[in-house]
């Protein structure tokens, strides 16, 4: 297990005979992938090796870059070598940025957030949360925005977008759709950036 990293997830994960945190890389991208894997229940090297790319892409917050990083980690290729040369990052306007700028922007909750809305049916107390963010990591083509609709701990929908305009429109469409599904007695709350 990794000894020097102060990241909470790295300190909690132990893969038998395999230092996954170190193989993924002790940087923001590596920690994000590791946290997503742990949250999705991937707790062993065998589980990761048996997972298809489609299985891994279905994990919240893991895109094609994350899948490449996981595969490289399993093949014992340093994650940094996979990221350098293969990974590109884009700002909200779609302009290419370097890893350092992406990391700085990723830490800015206001910049990352496109929309976060909570819907609640007062009669059934069902709560649906719609969160749309900038990831800056193209999933396919130039999809750098993502909406996730969740009810409790269950993710219902994941939608990706190429432009900020598409992301805003997509977020509003998802809010409208889920308001209709919950019925007329819906309470709407825009979630402040500090809560996301």
Write the H/E string, N to C: HHHHHHHEEHHEEEEHE
> Which stretches are poorly predicted, pLDDT < 50 over at least 5 residues?
77-86
Instruction: List the domain count as a whole number.
Output: 2
Largest sheet: 5 strands, antiparallel
Structural class: alpha+beta
Q: How many runs of DSSP E, i.e. beta strands?
A: 7
Write down the Rg: 18 Å
Number of discrete helical segments: 10
Principal-axes geometry comes out as globular
The amount of beta strand, in percent, is 15-25%
Helical content band = 40-55%
- N- to C-terminal distance: 30 Å
Arithmetic mean of pLDDT:
76
Topology:
Blueprint: H1 8-12, H2 20-24, H3 28-39, H4 45-50, H5 53-57, H6 64-74, H7 79-86, E1 89-90, E2 96-97, H8 99-106, H9 109-112, E3 113-121, E4 127-134, E5 145-151, E6 154-161, H10 164-182, E7 186-190
Helix pairs in contact: 6-7
Can you offer a commentary on this structure?
The protein is an alpha+beta fold. The chain has two domains: 8-87, no CATH class; 110-195. The chain is 42% helix and 21% strand. The chain has ten helices and seven strands. The protein has helices at 8-12, 20-24, 28-39, 45-50, 53-57, 64-74, 79-86, 99-106, 109-112, 164-182; strands spanning 89-90, 96-97, 113-121, 127-134, 145-151, 154-161, 186-190. The strands form two sheets. The protein has a five-stranded antiparallel beta sheet. The protein has a two-stranded antiparallel ribbon with strand order 1-2. Strand 1 and strand 2 (96-97) form a beta hairpin. The longest helix has 19 residues, at 164-182. The radius of gyration is 18 Å and the shape is globular.
